[in-house]
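WARN no homologs supplied; continuing
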Amino acid sequence: MSSNETIIKFNTVSFAWDALKPILDEANFSVRKGSKITLMGQNGAGKSTIFELIMGASKPDSGTINILSNMTIATARQVIPRPDLDLTIQEFFEKSFSKKVYDIDVKIKNVFEIVNLHIQNDRVLKSLSGGQQARVLLASALIQDPDVLLLDEPTNNLDKAGIQHLTKFIQEYPKTCIVISHDADFLNSFTEGVLYLDIFSKKVEQYTGDYFTVVREIKNRLERERMKNARLEKDISHRKEQANFFAQKGGHLRDVSSKMKKQIEKLEGDIVEVRREDKTIRDFNIICQDDSGGDIITLDSVTISKNHKFLDKKVNVRLTKKERLLLQGPNGIGKTTLLEKLASGHAKGEHIKPGTKIAYYRQDFSNLDFNATVYQTLSKAMGDRGTEQSLRAHAAGFLIDNELLKAKIGSLSEGQKGLVAFAAISLGRPGLLILDEPTNHINFRHIPVIARAINEFEGAMILVSHSPDFVEQVKVDQILDLGKFLEK
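OK structure emitted
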C-alpha cells in the first residue's frame, strides 16, 4: 500500500518538443511512495514523454519536477531502441548500469526467473521474439531494483502466461510503479489511482480509485460536459435570434441587442470543447485486390523453436478469399518469424498465388521508412488512385492531421505509427493481410473499428494476437496452434 510521502511532484510543468508539438502546459500532479498508478491518454498525447521527464532524460521548459533525494528510477520501454538490436543480452544489460557489474551473469539469471524467461545471455536481441524482447525490457528495469518502476506498455507481445506472471509481480512489488498500458483488465488488477493526460488542455488530471472506476468517472464527466454544451448551444441560438431581431428595430432595442451579443460571447466561452482524446478513428475499409478466386495461400509445413532447436512440422492450411487464420502459440515458438517469411515468400512449405499483393502489419513497424514523412508513406500506398485532397481526408479519419502528415515516421509515438500502418494498409488493396499483434499500442477506443474493417475485408488474412478482447471481435475460420507441437 502507498504511504502519504510524496516522492514525485510536477509543479506547473510545461514542455514541448517544438512550437508545433506541445505536451504539457503548467501540469500539476504528485505520486506517493509505494503507489500503483496508471498513466492514461490518447495515442501521441505524451505519456512516454512524462516518463522521460521523470527519468531526467528531458527537462521541462518551465516549472519544476521535484523527486525525493536518493530515489532510484528505472523504466521498461515499449520497444528496444533500434541501435541496440544488434547487442547481445549481456551487453544490453550492462548498459543498464553506470558502473561495471562483476556478477552481471548472476543478476541476469535472477531477474530472468522473475520474468519467466529462459534464454542464453549471448543471444542477439534482434533474434528474439516480440514476447521475449518484452520480457528482456522488463528485466532490464527490474535488474536495477529501482524505488520507482516505470512500465511503458509492458503487456505488448506477452502471451497469457506472461501477462499473468507480470500482473502477480506488480501486485506484490513493494515499491512505486507507474504503468502505461491499453490492457484494461491488466490495469484494473493493481491500479490505485490514475493520471489522465488531456491531449487538448495539456494538463494532467489526478484520480483515486481502480482503473474501471476512474474510466467511468471520466466518461460520466464528459457526458455532463456534452449535456451542458447542448443546453448552452440551444440558449445561444435562441438569444442570437432575439439579438438579430432587436438589432433590426433600431433605437433603444439596438442597445439591447448589443448587450445581448456580449452575453452570447460569454456563453460561448463557457462551452467546453469536445476533447480530442475522446475521438475514435472513423470506420474504414480495406479494399481487396481484384482476384479470380482459388487458394490465395497454402502452407504445408512450419518451423518452430523448441528447446533452442528448430523443428519442421507438417500442417495443412488452405486460405481462399474471406478466410481467416489465427496463429497461436507461446512466446518464442516462432510466430513472428513465420509471418516474416510468409510476407517475404520465403517460408518452407508456403505457396502464395502468383500476383497476390501482401499487406504486412509488423509489430515493430520496421517495414515503415522511419525517415519518410507520414504524407510520403500514405502517398506511396495510395499510388495514382486518389488526389491529395482524398489522401488528407483519409488520413483525418485516422486522427492524422496536417501537422502529423509533415512529421517523420520515426518521430511518432508507437500508437501513432500503428494508425499510420493501418491507414497505409487500407490504401494498398491487398489480397492477403498478415497482422502481427495489430492492437499493440492502439487506444482501446479504436479496436472495434479495426475489428470491423478486418471482418469486412474480402481477401485472406493471417493474424497473431495475444489480446483476447480483440480476437473475440474478429471472425476466425481456422486456428493453427503451434503450441501443440511442443506436447509431442
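The two ends are 45 Å apart (CA to CA).
OK
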